[in-house]
Amino acid sequence: MFWKFDLHNSSQIEKLLEKEDVTLQELLDEEDVLQECKAQNQRLLLFLSRDSSMLDLLNLITHEPPADREERLRYKFANVACELLTCDVSLINDKVGGDESLLNTLYSFLEQTPPLNPLLASFFSKTFGNLITRKTEQVIGFLKKKEDFIGQVLKHLDTSAMMDLVLRLISSVEPVCLRQEVLTWLNDERLIQRLIELIHPHSDSERQSNASQALCDIIRLSRDQASVLQETSETDPLLTTHELQQSIDVLLKNMFEGEKSEVCIVNGTQVLLTLLETRRPCVEQVIDPCSQGLEKPYTVNNSILMAIQTHLKHFHHLLLNPPKKCVMLTTMGILEEPFGNARLHGSRLMAALLYTRAPRIHHELCQLNMINLLLDLFFKFSWNNFLHIQVEHCVSAILNQPTTNGKTHDSPDQIQLETKDTQNSDKSDMFTHCDLIKHRILDAWEENDKTQEAGGMRKGYMGHITRIANTVVQNAEREQEQTQISQLIKDLPEDYKARWEQFVNETLTETNKKNTADLVRFHTKTPMPLLKSSFISIFLLTQVFSDYQIQEMTANFVDQFGLNDDEFGEHDSSISVTFSPFTNAISHQKQEKHSRPE
């Protein structure tokens, strides 16, 4: 039938190539030029691989198009040119990567005066990145001969495409020996130090943001590569430089010395949080509370914690005196003092640090009264759940610390640290100085009840108070913790001790029951009419709406009722149906109906 109806249309590209005076622009104007190129159309490839054609393609992605062209078509040819140059055709890669004059034409884009056109910058970055991957040795050799290539790239770092180019150099070079050579070259060019210098109050926000993101990505890429290539004995020089106490100290000084800049503090703290990312619960290591389920076998270098420790007083001052912010109108009324992104990131860092097993960090935070301050902010900003979750992480980090009876050790080249006294003092300080049970839980709960009885709104932090209270109860019930947390509870004044017992046995128990939503079970005698009718309605809608629309409605329905496959698995192992294909669920309902006794 295909041949009978002559559905195969001959390409217009072939007709154009038969012309002696065909131009590149005519070919680029054809919709199927990219498809023909990927299909290895030899006549087309021969035309594109001419020196003049290649030069024109590179000029299209590195020079502004004519201003008089219609706006929606101005960058059409540049876009098609970029797609052709990066379509992974070996003939094109060999031509550009093996011709230094063409590489110089492409490189000249970096030598322009800032700012760059963001769209052209993305075309340039994509093309150069493709050459780094496909013609690695030739391109790396070319870049090494250029004077201060890294400086040229960082000059334009306000454009995110330049950050992508740097990351391509780090992540896409193979084999391992050549990659190590590139990393050493980048380290010799002081890439890490120069990126850190850009996170400074005097840098514009885009440049700071891209520098911060580049540093975070370098950390993660380096650690991922190290975990994959465990057999190699060579360390990543960029990561080693980044983890130096001197490097982190420079970053922290940029954040806090001189005029306070929220942008600088936020971007710098993001780098610190990335350095503290790990999932191995050992001494001097952090369990990142924001990345649950991601097993990351990365250790936190002792120098990172030492550098941060000396600047903890600045974070304490930040929480008390943040950069000034304007009055904000919210759905809850006028907010005279917004909490701000800088303080939120400071809170996140405190939570990450408290998940370490580093006694000196915990001791310093206790000396600064940091937990008490965070709890004060917790109640002051009663509607900021972003803050509440970080404070909850801080409290949980302290309560969940295991009690040890001896010494724990870092890696062989680090000092033995006594942890028992620090851990015990952390918990004792939480219950005594911070009044976790007396004022932070019991009094706050009572105040909220009075507010609601008077017709007011439930406080925004009550869900987190409930979870903190449950954490206290759970840790008190653990055998190894009973002698510590239970004793701290027994040491409460008699009236508060009685109130706590009543609260746990009655109020908290009842609240937990209300908060535990019983999942839907199809095998029960009393089905949910709403659930059944909703699925039937969706089934009827299949006659009206498209598959995509049905999928969207089904997903919205599932989200509304909070149902997912995992939840069903926990309650009834016999149920293997999923809600994604709603017809399976309807079928399952019908089977249950027939098998269930009337």
From TrEMBL:
Lineage top rank: taxon: Eukaryota
GO CC term (a single one): cytosol
Name of the featured protein: Protein phosphatase 6, regulatory subunit 2b
Any single Pfam family the record assigns to this protein: SAPS
Family stated for the protein in its record: Belongs to the SAPS family.
Listed GO MF terms: protein phosphatase binding; protein phosphatase regulator activity
